[in-house]
Amino acid sequence: MAQEPILSARGLVKRYGKVTALDNADFDLYPGEILAVIGDNGAGKSSLIKAISGAVHPDEGEIKLEGKPVSFRSPIEARKAGIETVYQNLALSPALSIADNMFLGREIRKPGVMGSIFRSLDRPAMEKFARDKLSELGLMTIQNINQAVETLSGGQRQGVAVARAAAFGSKVIILDEPTAALGVKESRRVLELILDVRSRGIPIVLISHNMPHVFEVADRIHIHRLGRRLTVINPKDYSMSDAVAFMTGAKAPEPLAA
Amino acid sequence: MSEPQAAKTPHLEYEKVLSGSSTQVAQFDTNDKTPIQKFQHFLHGSPAAVPLIVLLLSVIVFGSILGTKFFSAFSLTLILQQVAITGIIGAAQTLVILTAGIDLSVGAIMVLSSVVMGQFAIHYGIPTPLAILCGFAVGAICGLINGFLIARVKLPPFIVTLGMWQIVLASNFLYSANETIRSQDLAANAQLLQFFGDSVRFGGAVLTYGVIAMVLLVALLWYVLNSTAWGRHLYAVGDDPDAAELAGVNVKKMLMSVYTLSGIICALGGWALIGRIGSVSPTAGQFANIESITAVVIGGLSLFGGRGSILGMLFGALIVGVFQLGLRLIGTDPQWTYMLIGLLIIAAVAIDQWIRKVAG
Description:
Order of helices and strands of chain B: HHHHHHHHEEHHHHHHH
Number of strands of chain B: 2
Keywords (chain B): Cell membrane, Membrane, Transmembrane, Transmembrane helix
Subcellular location (chain B): Cell membrane
Distance between the termini of chain A: 8 Å
Pfam families (chain B): BPD_transp_2
CATH class of chain B: Mainly Alpha
Strand order of the largest sheet of chain B: 1-2
Strand content of chain B: under 5%
Number of domains of chain A: 2
CATH class of the largest domain in chain A: Alpha Beta
Structural class of chain A: alpha/beta
Protein name (chain B): ABC transporter permease
CATH topology of the largest domain in chain A: Rossmann fold
Oligomer: heterodimer
InterPro entries (chain B): ABC_transp_permease (IPR001851)
Shape of chain A: globular
């Protein structure tokens, strides 16, 4: 690939006491692609994701966003830099409305005195924006944007969380097990949604245990094993059982070309 | 999510069933609800409705039993006067309980603040407005200590405020040497301290400034909770602190500010307490913490945080006031009041659990 990676990491090390979760791990995400990250439980996959999303600070190594070195002390900093993470628990507040959730932590205030002195929220503007973003992603048969999130189904909640991540001009979206808790039908909708987000030019890191889903939507698959990147494969060149064999160490991949 | 395409061409073996399934995209509003479900949804959307209905019913019941003895402007405003302190302290308690915390020290902070205001003004000869400010500062500091121990040291709110309750109450008795400052002394030297006891009259209706302060405070906090980012964050923190943190809310800062504000509101309650009883007494308001929690729970706020309206708390406090006055006018043993309030508390929590099932 001739392109520069939009997000890359080199030589990440993270130790928890005697356990080495990340052992010189590398990572590359190119513009406009869906990169799946797979690995066995305990392979250090979540530590890798936490390191690039700012949830943990790696002991060693370097992370670059658009070629510039970055160092995040919190997910909030990563988000400010344009890395949005949709966590497995979605980070939604169940009792708040869809609109309130989309703007949680970045509310819009009314113009003028009402906003500056009385700190009043600009509800109509927030609702309109939320409605527009959900419609863009084809999620808009939501009649009531003020509905509490807890009254939505799992897939709808995932939709709101993804829409929130995609709505605020982000450069990278990380999705952690987006289909893990969903039924077949809802998983299908979420996969469509992921492809839709990519078609808007936002690259996606997809962490998933579901091989059929990974092989269906990913452009490249990053296989993590024993705390480092074992290889990156093209899903068109390998089968699912190959990928599982690499993951578990049953088979060794050819040396990494990139 | 272009649904039709997905449904027409199943990508994977196990998704074949999809072609036969509904092709409707994310459906949000289902209309086939029974009236009970609709009612449940209505209550879910308007958490202050249950206490309001109970309040209106109890006013009607007592009014029809007692007639004009109860149903007069004087009696009804008397209820307001009697719940003013509970309402103000309940407002502080509401903020804390919305964050899924609890503040057992509210009553103690209120009394200590009132004692500081009185002692500073009368014994140290500090100008009354300044003494009142000192009382507010004491309330804020107590709240800040609560907030620090809960947010930074990560101790459970119940334990922290249980400890602070004892500490603040003991400081109050040690500092004041259990001495009451008489009403005459206040009237002569620090009239401003009794401000909230003054009243305006409309015919038979007597509204003390304490009542007006309570109503304005609840109205202000209602606005803050519903229409500002701080208010929305408070709900989010109570709902799911981890989710709020990941979504970009500074949870620690929120908790610190909530407990500090609670302390400041308690100081306001302390000032209003002086107006209510006329004197400064270190033994007053012993049960304000329990009364405020009662008002909050009957008001339909969830002790698990994130749910309910501050208006509910006000209705809850008024329900207690209506029962107290109504039963006293009927002439029953006061224990019946406590028994009914106990039943109301349990009923309120049961209803809260039922309403929450909407989510499932």
